[in-house]
Amino acid sequence: MKNLQNKNSNNSNQFLKDKKFSAIDFLFILFALFPLLPFGIKGAPVILLALFVISILKKKKKKFEYIYLINSTLYIIYFISIFYSDNSKNSLTLLETTLSLLIVPISFVLYSGIKLPNKTILKQEFIFKTFFIISSFVLSIFIFIISFEYGDYISTKIELRQFLSRLDSGFFWLKEHPIYLSIYLSISLLTIISLFKTSKRKIVLIVMGLFQFFILMLLSRKGVIISFLFTAVAFFLMIQKRKRIGLLFIVFFSVIASFFVFKYTPDTIKRFEEVFDVKSYNKIEKHSSTSIRYGVYKCALEKINESWVIGYGIGDVKSELLKCYEKKSKILVNQNLNSHNQYLGILLSVGLFGLLVFIIPLIINLRLFFINKDYFAFCLLLMFTFFMFFENILDRQNGVILFAFLLNFYTFKNYTLKKNE
C-alpha cells in the first residue's frame, strides 16, 4: 500500500502527459466542478454517475463488492422513520434531498463490478483534485468581485452582513449559503496541501491557496474555519517527515495569514470574539450568531431528552424545535432554524440508534483510510465530521452530494487498492 501511495505523483505526471479522458473521467470532472454548478443542476453528477455504471454493466454480469452499502445506512434509517413521522410531506422532501446517500453508494457497488487497475483509480483521484482546486479558485474570484460592491478593503470597510446576505440570495448564476462556500474552499485548500509536495507548479498552488484562504476568512464561518485549520495542521504534520520544519512552516504561515486577517477581515475577528463574550449566552440577539446557536442547541437538547431512543422522525424535527423556540425567543421562531449540528439533527430525527448507525460507518472508513496511509482521505473525512458539529450539511443537497461522493469514492479507492495488493 505504501508503494501505491508513493506512485500517486508518477500517475499524476503521466496524466498530464497523455491528457486522454474517458467517459468516467468526465464524470469526475463534473463532480469537481460542483462548486460552480447552478443550484438547479447540482444533482446532475449523481444521476449521470448512476446512469453511466448501469449502462456499462448491462453488457455482461459482474461480481460486485457490497461493502460500500455501509455508507447508505443513515438513509435507510431515515426511510424507516417516515412511518412514525406525522408530517409525511416534510419526510418525503427530506428523503428526496438526501437521496444521494443511497444512490452514490449503490453506484460504487456497481462500479466495483468493473475490474480497474490501480493507476486508473489514482488517475481519477488526481483529475478530481485538479479540477476541484480550479473550480474553487474561480469561485473565490467571483466572491471577491462581489465583495467590492460592499467596500474596497482600503478606504471603506466591507459591510460583511450585507455582503454575506448577497451571496446567499444569489450572485452571477450561483446561490449558495456562505457555510457551503466555505466548505468548498476548505476542501480545495486541503487538496492543495495534498498535491503541493509532488507538484511542479508550487508557486501557482501557493498563490491559489493564499487567495482562497483569504476568501475563507472573509466569509467568517467560525465552525468551518476552525475545522479546516485543525485538520490542515494535522494533515500537514502527517505527511511532513521533518516535523520541526513542518511546525516552523505552520508558525510562519500563521503569522502571515494573521496579518491579512487582522488588516482586511476585522469582522471575522469580531465573530470569534462573540464566542468568549458572556452576553452571548445570556440573551438571544438577532445579529449574534453565537447567541442564536446557543439558543438552538438548548432547544435541541431539551427535545432530544424527551425522545432520545428513536427520535421524532425526519418529518417532525422542525415542528418539535419550533415548539421550544416559541418558549425561548421570537428571533428563533422567525428564523425557524434547524439544529445547526448534524449529530443533534440525527438524534432528533432517528434517536440514539440512528446516530450509532451513522457514526459506526464513519469510524470504519477513518480506520480504513488511516491503515492504508491515505492521510488525505482520513483528514478530509475528519474535517467533514467537524463540519457536522456546526452545520446540518446532510440536510441540503449542497452538502449531502459532495459528502456522499467523496466518502464513497475514497472508500472505493482504498478498499480496491487494498484488495489488489
Structure keywords:
about 425 residues; single chain; disordered N terminus; 20 helices; mainly alpha
Strand content: under 5%
Q: Quick one: how many beta strands? A: 0
- In angstroms, what separates the terminal alpha carbons? 7 Å
Q: What's the story with the biggest beta sheet?
A: none
How would you characterize this protein structure?
The chain is an all-alpha fold and 421 residues long. The chain has one domain. Helix content is 71%, strand content 0%. It has 20 helices and no strands. The chain has helices at 2-6, 8-18, 23-32, 44-57, 73-81, 88-97, 100-111, 118-147, 160-169, 178-196, 202-219, 222-239, 243-264, 266-275, 289-306, 317-328, 330-335, 342-371, 375-387, 397-419. 39% of the residues are buried. Residues 1-13 have low confidence and may be disordered.
How is the topology of this model organized?
Blueprint lengths: L1 H5 L1 H11 L4 H10 L11 H14 L15 H9 L6 H10 L2 H12 L6 H30 L12 H10 L8 H19 L5 H18 L2 H18 L3 H22 L1 H10 L13 H18 L10 H12 L1 H6 L6 H30 L3 H13 L9 H23 L2
Short overview:
This protein has helices spanning 2-6, 8-18, 23-32, 44-57, 73-81, 88-97, 100-111, 118-147, 160-169, 178-196, 202-219, 222-239, 243-264, 266-275, 289-306, 317-328, 330-335, 342-371, 375-387, 397-419. By secondary structure, the chain is an all-alpha fold.
